[in-house]
Amino acid sequence: MHISRRNLAALLPLLAQAQAQTQEQGPLKSQTWRFEDLPVKQNKTSKTRAVFNGATSRGLGVELHMTEIPAGEAPHGSHRHVHEELVFVLEGTIEVDIEGHKSRIGPGSVAYMGTNEEHGLRNAGTTPARYYLFTLGREKA
């Protein structure tokens, strides 16, 4: 792919603005989050409570949310992305599919999905399942 100097010059102000916005926002501050204060987002197959979404003091993107899914449901289809994810199961039984390898995990268990690995989650139990999902890194264009 060839990028002309003219196109590069046009991109520089946009890159500077994006960098300035990142610096203005700064890293996440040390704090606590009360479960009952977390905003809830509900869709047909899951309920999610966003905890935080930001960056560490070294610029590593981090995000944490808690999801609850009914028995037999999945929060979304199988997918892949650049960032990495950790799932911490609180309640229920989660079937984790990573690159076609399925495992069932329960309370206290953890799953790790590496960069660009196709993965998906599904509640494989008979009761609602709850888990925290922790994201490391950011998507790159």
List keywords for this structure.
single chain; 141 residues; mainly beta; Jelly Rolls; six-stranded antiparallel sheet; three-stranded antiparallel sheet; globular
Describe the structure concisely:
The chain is 15% helix and 40% strand.
Describe the structure.
The chain is mostly beta strands and 141 residues long. It has one domain (35-136): Sandwich (Jelly Rolls). Helix content is 15%, strand content 40%. It is built from one helix and nine strands; from the N terminus they run H-E-E-E-E-E-E-E-E-E. The protein has one helix spanning 5-25; strands at residues 40-42, 47-55, 61-69, 84-91, 94-98, 101-105, 110-113, 119-123, 129-136. A six-stranded antiparallel sheet has the order 1-2-3-9-4-7, with no helix packed on it. It has a three-stranded antiparallel sheet with strand order 6-5-8, with no helix packed on it. It is globular and about 55 Å long. The relative contact order is 0.19. Mean pLDDT is 86; it is low at 14-24.
Q: Secondary-structure blueprint of this entry?
A:
Blueprint: H1 5-25, E1 40-42, E2 47-55, E3 61-69, E4 84-91, E5 94-98, E6 101-105, E7 110-113, E8 119-123, E9 129-136
